[in-house]
Amino acid sequence: MRTFVLLMCLAVGCLAQAPHPCRSPPLLTGAMSVANEKFNAYAKYDYDALGERIRFKEMGSYENKTFGLDALLLFREGVMYTINHKNRTCKKERLKKEDFHPMEIPADAALLGQVILGSSSGPGQGLLVNTWYGERATPTGGKDKWMSTFTEFGCIPVSTTYYTDKTGWVLTTFFNIVVGIDDPQQFFPPKFCQGAKVDETAEAANFYSILKNIKN
């Protein structure tokens, strides 16, 4: 009986510990939905924080027009490929290496609260998550704002709401996440992209440049 009570106390003690900033596993595969006032999309993604690489395969609508998109972001190499499999063409753009941000809660984030999504009435009926808020200074002197929810155990992203002056509020929801990469070839452009050239005079791309490519 004493052993049982001791184990229960240890378990309660672990749950009672204050939430702390964390970083997600470096290799993830999953799905996500992204939406703001003009844009909504569903995407499958592969995320490699070790190599600073992300692959998105999206479908959705922008300003009431449907689209399909395949984008490969290679931050360490400083390039982004927008891949058109139907036409077997690639658009290759410069990418700012410093724009890679790992899936994490930074140390200066403010904790908004800890809740259980679902129910705490029975095993497997709920998910313990923490919600955080933060701001990031921009080169123009402004501030981007964000609010993120991550799981308490495993530091798996659940949702992120991000604000910039260009995009407004963008809501991203993550689901069906698996730790690890099923197919490492996802981080290599197809052979028909080998001849693509970068326009060195063009403005460097970033994650939100994907929206620009949709309009084009």
List keywords for this structure.
mainly beta; 11-stranded antiparallel beta sheet; 11 strands; 47% strand
How would you describe what is shown here?
The chain is built from 2 helices and 11 strands, in the order H-E-E-E-E-E-E-E-E-E-E-E-H. Helices cover 10% and strands 47% of the residues. The model is unreliable at 1-14 (pLDDT under 50). It has 216 residues and is mainly beta. The protein has helices at residues 2-16, 209-215; strands at residues 27-35, 39-48, 53-62, 65-74, 79-84, 89-94, 110-118, 126-137, 143-151, 157-164, 168-179.
- Describe the oligomeric state of these chains in a short phrase: single chain
CA-to-CA gap between the ends? 69 Å
Q: Strand order across the biggest sheet?
A: 6-5-4-3-2-1-11-10-9-8-7
What string gives the helices and strands in order? Answer: HEEEEEEEEEEEH
Low-pLDDT segments, ≥5 res: 1-14
